[in-house]
Amino acid sequence: MQKTGRIVKGIAGFYYVQTSGREVYECKAKGSFRNDKLKPLVGDYVSLAVVDEEKKKGNIEKIENRKNELIRPAVANIDQALVIFASIDPQPNFHLLDTFLARMELLGIPSLICFNKSDLDEDQEIYKEIEEIYRASGYPIVYTSAKEQQGVEQLKAYLKHKCTTVAGPSGVGKSSLINLLQSNVRMETNDISQKTARGRHTTRHSELIALDEDSFIMDTPGFTSLRMDEYEKEDISKGFREIFEQEGNCRFVGCSHIHEPDCGVKEALCQGKISKKRYDSYVMMYEECKEKRRY
């Protein structure tokens, strides 16, 4: 018997496919996928052959064409990315956030930024810094507190009618927020390690979770580092909206926005139209890609 559905979870070579009737089948992938160097991803639409209806087991025989796919995190067919950082405890790593945003921008995937634990930022210092850095980037920013259940409804509104991949470093309260956004799946939560001031990874696999009939989130394992050296250095400016917008004001075509004179980007930086932290992130990524070409 043939059925179609969507992969909602993948663990240790097993893929859990939910069909239109809300039934979930435990499946293995056809060996030919390996020969074609094609690996099923959470979010894939697939065709499966049922091998045991009673035990809900089957084999994935076909993966439908993907709208898009990500490698880190490994998911497919998403409408937007939600990246969650903590406002404090741990302090946000803005370069890591910029790297994630740049990767999504280069893939043409809209991003939404969420800063959790906003209740801990009593003097609003982190809030002011965030606004100063990202006000020119145009990304929607939501401030939440999973502990106080603040900002959750505003966040839900951004997720409506979309399939959203959710990612972020460990220890930022990602699982706690996901538990507040839906009631079907309870995610394991852990406190920050006091010894290392870092979170313990509570999400160990990617999973597609329904918020309502046509709204889904893909919970993915936390990330601690991302590299951009798979891109050419000339591509990096396209990952920064506010920098890319100023390229037409540069004197030289192909300006790196680092050493050249009469650079529209550096002029915008001096005028406060581009955040110094965002610009520094751009330069770090540019140099990273430049080094790759040398070696």
Portion in helices: 25-40%
With strands numbered from the N-terminus, the spatial order across the biggest sheet is 10-9-8-11-15-14
CA gyration radius, whole angstroms? 21 Å
How many structural domains in the coordinates? 3
Give me the secondary-structure category.
alpha/beta
Mean pLDDT: 89
3D architecture notes:
The chain is α/β, with parallel strands linked by helices. It folds into 3 domains: 2-64, Nucleic acid-binding proteins (OB fold (Dihydrolipoamide Acetyltransferase, E2P), Beta Barrel); 70-219, P-loop containing nucleotide triphosphate hydrolases (Rossmann fold), CATH 3.40.50.300; 233-294, Orthogonal Bundle (Ribonucleotide Reductase Protein R1, domain 1). The protein contains 8 helices and 15 strands. The chain has helices at 31-35, 94-106, 125-134, 152-159, 174-181, 241-244, 264-270, 276-294; strands at 2-11, 14-19, 24-29, 45-52, 57-63, 69-70, 75-76, 80-86, 111-116, 141-143, 163-167, 192-193, 198-199, 207-212, 215-219. The strands form 4 sheets. A 6-stranded mixed β-sheet has the order 10-9-8-11-15-14, with helices on both faces. Strands 1-2-3-5-4 form a 5-stranded mixed β-barrel. A two-stranded antiparallel sheet has the order 6-7. The longest helix has 19 residues, at 276-294. The radius of gyration is 21 Å and the shape is globular. The N and C termini lie far apart (52 Å). The relative contact order is 0.13. Mean pLDDT is 89; it is low at 192-203.
